[in-house]
Specification:
Blueprint lengths: L1 H24 L12 E9 L6 E13 L12 E12 L4 E10 L6 E14 L4 E15 L13 E14 L4 E15 L2 E15 L8 E11 L10 E6 L9 H16 L5 E6 L6 H21 L7 E7 L18 E6 L1
Parallel strand pairs: 12-13
Antiparallel strand pairs: 1-10, 2-3, 2-9, 3-4, 4-5, 5-6, 6-7, 7-8, 8-9, 11-14, 12-14
Length: 342
């Protein structure tokens, strides 16, 4: 009965997180369009969410004991479990957490495990990361076997705890995890036993936009010219991307249409193309993504009649972000391709 109630609580919590994310995903992205006779420079980026904040999660799993310790639990080596946890991330790398685990009928007894500890996170790609946990657990057990001669846990004990796992970001707010927690030297009436819990679950982080949106800081008119001339002194375009995206989106193709028209009308105008990423992920991944973004933009221009000799293509990953007028620190983290016409 306890396991059924806790399972329903986990399902309800996860359903609420998914519903919240789905509603946020329906919110339209905003962008600024340029007029036909005005060359403009727009600065913008895809908002990736804050690295800090509170989160809650839930998981279903299975607890295991080694064959050498099976005798401690009457020959039983596994039992189903439910996990509820919450925490606070100080940044994208480190935070604190607390969890409650319920393990049903392990050796004819139910186990309740409360844990406090520190959690570290290591980004592997734009969406995938590895995490590790260390902490201390208080373990309480109840059941008939603790009142008879069977060899099991004492009614309560403390244990050192460690865990490892992988997390995949579905949206800025919602992610899914697989992991394993290890509980060392559980105190039993016949000595000590080790316990491992494998699990799968979901986590919802508060204060995050569920889907990326385009943020436009300002539009600056560089020069208005007559239709007959169409020669800007300088024009700059910034094409934003979502996490891990390298292919052109509709907003990018629309702006590149203006670039093509300007360069076809003015054969002496050349284009400098610069690919960028934000700070999330390894340097190698960021180099690869920024290079692919810049190359796809150059391929689009060439496919629409612009000679490759008029294009200068480069990528800087996150080493040279575009600064904006906003005081928000996230303005220095941009996933984009910049095009400068000269």
């Amino acid at each position: 009965m306890k396991l059924k109630s806790l399972s329903l609580a986990v399902v309800a919590a996860l359903s609420l997180g998914v519903a919240t994310s789905a509603m946020a995903a329906d919110a339209p992205a905003t962008a600024t369009n340029n007029t036909a006779l005005t060359q403009s420079a727009a600065t913008g980026h895809w908002y990736a969410g804050q690295g800090h904040g509170f989160w809650v999660g839930g998981a279903l799993g299975m607890g295991y004991v080694g064959n050498n310790d099976a005798g401690v639990f009457g020959g039983q080596t596994n039992a189903p479990s439910v996990k509820l946890d919450a925490g606070y991330d100080f940044n994208q790398y480190v935070g604190v957490y607390g969890s409650y685990d319920f393990m049903y009928n392990l050796g004819n007894a139910d186990m309740h495990i409360g844990t406090l500890g520190v959690k570290g996170n290591l980004p592997l790609t734009q969406k995938l990361s590895a995490f590790g946990k260390v902490g201390a657990s208080y373990i309480y057990a109840d059941g008939q076997s603790f009142h008879h001669q069977a060899t099991h846990l004492h009614s309560d004990s403390f244990s050192a705890t460690a865990g490892l796992g992988l997390s995949y970001q579905i949206t800025n707010a919602l992610s899914t995890q697989i992991g394993a927690d290890y509980y060392q030297n559980l105190d039993t009436t016949n000595g000590h036993a080790d316990l491992t819990q494998a699990y799968w679950g979901m986590t919802y982080k508060f204060g995050q936009p569920a889907t990326p949106v385009i943020v436009t800081n300002n539009v600056e008119v560089v020069k208005e010219v007559a239709v007959e001339a169409q020669i800007p002194t300088r024009s700059s375009y910034v094409l934003p991307y979502q996490n891990g995206q390298t292919k052109l989106n509709d907003y990018g193709r629309y702006n590149l249409g203006e670039v093509v028209a300007t360069m076809q009308a003015n054969p002496e105008v050349n284009a400098q193309i610069i690919g960028r990423t934000d700070k999330v992920g390894s340097q190698a991944i960021n180099e690869k993504i920024s290079a692919a973004r810049a190359a796809n933009v150059a391929s689009f221009l060439e496919a629409n009649g612009i000679s490759a000799s008029r294009l200068t293509v480069s990528h800087v990953a996150n080493s040279n972000p575009i600064k904006t007028n906003s005081a928000d620190s996230t303005n220095y983290v941009q996933r984009s391709v910049q095009i400068i016409l000269k």
